[in-house]
Amino acid sequence: MDREKVIVRTSVIGIVTNILLVIFKAGVGILSNSIAVVLDAVNNLSDAISSIVTIIGTKIANKKPTRKHPLGVGRIEYITALVVAALVIYAGITSGVESIKKIFSPEKPEYSVVSLIIIAVAVVVKFILGNYVKGQGKKVNSGALEASGKDALFDSILSLSVLVSAGISFFTGLSLEAYVGILIACFIVKAGVEMLLETLDEILGRRADTELTLKIKKLVREMPDVRGAYDLFLYNYGPERDYGSIHVEVPDTMSVAEMDVLTRQIEKKVYAETGIIMTAVGVYSYNTGNDEAAQMRDNLMREILKNDWAIQMHGFYIDTETRNARFDLVISFDIDFGEGLKIAYETAKKLYPDYEFEISPDIDITD
Q1: Parallel, antiparallel, or unpaired: how do β-strands 324-331 and 356-363 relate?
Q2: CA dihedral defined by 38, 52, 199, 218, rounded to 10 degrees?
Q3: What is the pairing mode between strands 277-286 and 242-251?
């Protein structure tokens, strides 16, 4: 599947559909003197502009990597999504201002049966379009398309409220135009803010998807001689541009040549199953054939993990001759890292005062 073609094709469908809706709704709104219908048309126009922005962003994002941007410019799609969100918020605020004006300077709308039918058809069309665009966005992992799809679904609900108010006005003569316009504005602004916050989360770097991280760790643990998989970091440089690194725990008897073969197999397997490129596979060795080391590891783990903030311990290696021990400790965000390390070190020294401990703190970044 050509991702760029899907996004462009979907966006073009959205542009054409929204422009047609703008023409029909604007016509109905002007002829019937309805501010709610006119604002609904303006909202559709902002959707068409959003789709144009999405196409431009996708075209730029698919440029080949250069020396200046060796991993490409895929993150430009996040900027595109921000622009779409800003346009949605702007449309909402503008709609709200115009609706408030109509409360103080009301004008009674005059609907016809034909205008009601056009609005009803627009509701159905927008609902179908929203589901289609959102589905295509999920299929090709396009935040901008998903945002446009959600916005279109919101629009269908808002258009339905316009239809209801128009029906009330047609049958009873009671005008709710301005109030419906304010309701539309509030929903539009809310949708825009949610899009904005979601995109900012992507840019800032959100917690990795639990299902994905568990899958990667399971794939790695299935490899021969791997006892554990830890410290998984995932880096995103735009849709379908994912990289990662991980530590594996292997026996201290493995040779460098054997480790080289293993890391290449891990990289190949993870990429085949998830599409993620593992840029680095670090190594933790564990003691083999040493009962004292195993007993010491179990004792330390039991005592330190009694603390609620101590999530996991791994990467144990104990040198009984030099009396040195090292391990990693995953510390939660509930305690200062320095304080957590101090408590862990004091606990270890209390159990084994003759040993020196090297404890490396790990961030609670994946499940």
Answers
A1: parallel
A2: 130
A3: parallel
Q: What is the pLDDT of residue 1?
A: 52
Helix (H) or strand (E) holding 255: none
- In this prediction, residue 244 carries a pLDDT of 94
Write the pLDDT tens digit of every residue in 144-178: 778 778 878 877 877 787 788 778 877 887 777 77
CATH 1.20.1510.10-classified regions of the chain: 3-204
Query: What's the CA angle centered on 83, arms 136 and 99, to 5 degrees?
Result: 100
Q: pLDDT for 225-251, tens place per residue?
A: 999 999 999 988 876 678 999 999 999
CB 163 within 8 A of CB 98: no
What Å distances lie between residue 244 and 230, 261, 333, CA to CA?
12, 18, 22
- Binning the chain into helix, strand and coil, the percentages to the nearest 5 are 65, 15, 20
Range(s) of the chain covered by CATH 3.30.70.1350? 210-363
Tally helices (H) and strands (E) across the chain: 10, 6
- Give the pLDDT confidence of 80-121 residue by residue, as tens digits: 888 878 887 887 888 788 778 877 877 677 777 888 888 888
**331 has which bridge partners?**
310, 363
Helix H or strand E segment including 141:
none
User: What's the fold here for domain 210-363?
Assistant: Alpha-Beta Plaits (3.30.70)
Under 8 Å between Cβ of 14 and 47: yes
Contact, 39 vs 100, CB < 8 A? no
Beta bridge partners of 248: 229, 283
Q: What angle do CA 30, 36, 41 make, to 5 degrees?
A: 65
The per-residue pLDDT for range 285-297, each reduced to its tens digit, is: 988 877 888 889 8
| 266: nearest Cα among 316, 314, 232, 312 | 232
Report the run of H or E that residue 314 belongs to, with start and end.
strand 310-319
- Sign of the CA dihedral with 230 first, then 231, 237, and 238 last: positive
CATH of 3-204, one of 1.20.1510.10, 2.102.10.10, 1.10.10.10, 3.40.50.720: 1.20.1510.10
Question: Residue 299 is encoded by which pair of tokens?
Answer: 């004792």
Contact 88, 191 (CB under 8 A): yes
